[in-house]
Amino acid sequence: MLSFVVPAHNEQACLGRTVQAIHAAARATGRPYEVIVVDDASTDATAEVARKHDATVVSVNRRQIAASRNAGGRTAQQVQGHENDRQKDHPPAASAKAI
What is the CATH number of the domain that holds 37? Predict the structure, then answer.
């Protein structure tokens, strides 16, 4: 399962196109996938736009991109690959193989 985590704060204007592009790219792989939008205290229609485009929505109120990303990661059905801030723990060849 591929999991795409999209941290978002007041992104209603561009989120629909972003999620559509993720769906298109993910479908092209032929693998099962999920799109998770982490709505971090948005005051606009970010969550509604995400749901309209078949994304799972996780709501947080942290206003920290790392906290948003981590909340999405906890929601993901399966984690593959690595987080950017942990690359030192995973050699690039191992990361490429995991994906």
Answer: 3.90.550.10
Count of the separate structural domains present in the chain: 1
What pTM was estimated for this model as a whole?
0.77
Note the residue count of the chain: 99
Asked if 37 and 12 count as a contact pair (C-beta separation under 8 A), the reply is: no
Amino acid, single-letter form, for residue 93: A
33: domain range? 2-98
Please give the chain's pLDDT, 99 residues, in tens: 999 999 999 999 999 999 999 999 999 999 999 999 999 999 999 999 999 999 999 999 999 999 999 999 999 985 554 443 333 343 444 434 444
The single residue listed with the structure tokens 């906290």 is 67
> How many C-beta neighbours within 10 Å does residue 83 have?
14
